[in-house]
Amino acid sequence: MSFPDGFLWGSATAAHQIEGNNLASDFWALEHAANSRFAEPSGDACDHYRLFREDIALLADLGLNSFRFSIEWARVEPEDGFFSDAALAHYRDVLEACHASGVVPVVTLHHFTSPKWLMGLGGWEYERTPERFAAYCRTVMAELGDLIPYACTLNEANIGRVIRRIVANLGEGRRPRVEQAPVGLGEGPGASQPGGRAPEGHFLSQFSDTAFDVITRAHTAARAVIREVSPHTEVGLTLALQDVQALPGGEKAAEEVWAELFEDFLPAIAGDDFLGVQNYSRIRVGPEGVAPVPEDAEVTQMGYEFYPQALGSVLRAAASAGLPLIVTENGLATDDDARRVAFVRSALEGLERSLADGVDVRGYLHWTLLDNFEWMHGFAPKFGLIAVDRATQRRTVKESARFLGAIARRNALA
Ligand code: BGC
């Protein structure tokens, strides 16, 4: 069976994790705070801000036809109300490099990081943040919208829910090892540093009902602006969606978890052009809540269960949104690239079965292109299709990249 014509085959990235030197962002400040919870700072990361042409060429040479990347708000608006023409020109260059290589850009307008100045206003609990975000989106889309066919407003609008629901409620001893890299960022008081406190109010520290309201309004405000200034752009957001499985007696609790992660967002995404589905593993829910990973399970470098079958189930469940779906992230952290090949094969088999059953899936964007900065875990987890020697910034294509590229060229699994 082949995939639909125009199926997006590619890889997903985020600015802060690869570009380097995101100096005006809240995360840069968090990384450099005394008592920082980060294993190491992002530094030059993969120097992708300088090397984007090479990286896009590598992706295109593999046979992939789509690149998801994020435009960094902290670069475009490094001070409140000051928009950088130079940063916008840079992202125009990135978009043009994609189009010149026949690569469809899928642009994320916010992938966890925000300008540090926004934290001074209250960050993602400040009631007027939706207007600030929409103003930034207006500028980006007015300048660059002609080159942007797909825009994701917010990456993982439900991340606060994921952290609150799956991790924060559980005691240390019972903590499940589940998909969620940045967990821990939101816990505890902000660390102090010489010039003041580390910023609070960042996207991953937001578990409150107020934050839910701010985040969902930020999406709908941005969508309205994007439709106004760039009507040809398809707009949606992305959600972190684990395959939520009920253990005996856990049926009701599992339904509640799914409602928090997915159903609560349906009013905000009604009328979107697509939904970005991001899946890494499953969680099993018993009467007591989220259960630990089974003792005998294979786990990834992140401690999540190796469970690529999750993708197909999640796509079927997410289809109830009634929107076209794009897999905007799916992947695993491993040093054993053969396991990445096996993961991709199994995940795509599930995706193919969901297509055969009539689920409208438009693309598969593997997380991620380069071994990168995995938030508070630093550079240790290896999620990339391409290895990066950070001393030389030399890239080495892995077998898994060739495997995915060959599928993309055939537009079929075998
Ligand atoms: C995020 C990425 C992150 C990945 C792997 C997703 O939740 O969008 O930024 O690197 O998971 O942990």
Please outline what is shown here.
The chain has 414 residues and is an alpha/beta fold.
Helix and strand layout, with pairings?
Elements: E1 8-12, H1 15-18, H2 26-32, H3 48-62, E2 66-70, H4 73-76, H5 85-100, E3 104-110, H6 116-121, H7 129-144, E4 150-154, H8 159-168, E5 192-193, E6 196-197, H9 209-229, E7 234-240, E8 243-246, H10 251-261, H11 266-269, E9 274-279, E10 282-286, E11 289-290, H12 310-318, E12 325-330, H13 337-356, E13 361-367, E14 386-389, E15 394-397, H14 399-410
Parallel strand pairs: 1-2, 1-13, 2-3, 3-4, 4-7, 7-9, 8-10, 9-12, 12-13
Antiparallel strand pairs: 5-6, 10-11, 14-15
Helix pairs in contact: 3-5, 7-9, 12-13, 13-14
The structure holds beta-D-glucopyranose (BGC).
Residues 14, 155-156, 181, 240, 278, 329, 367, 374, 383 line the site of beta-D-glucopyranose.
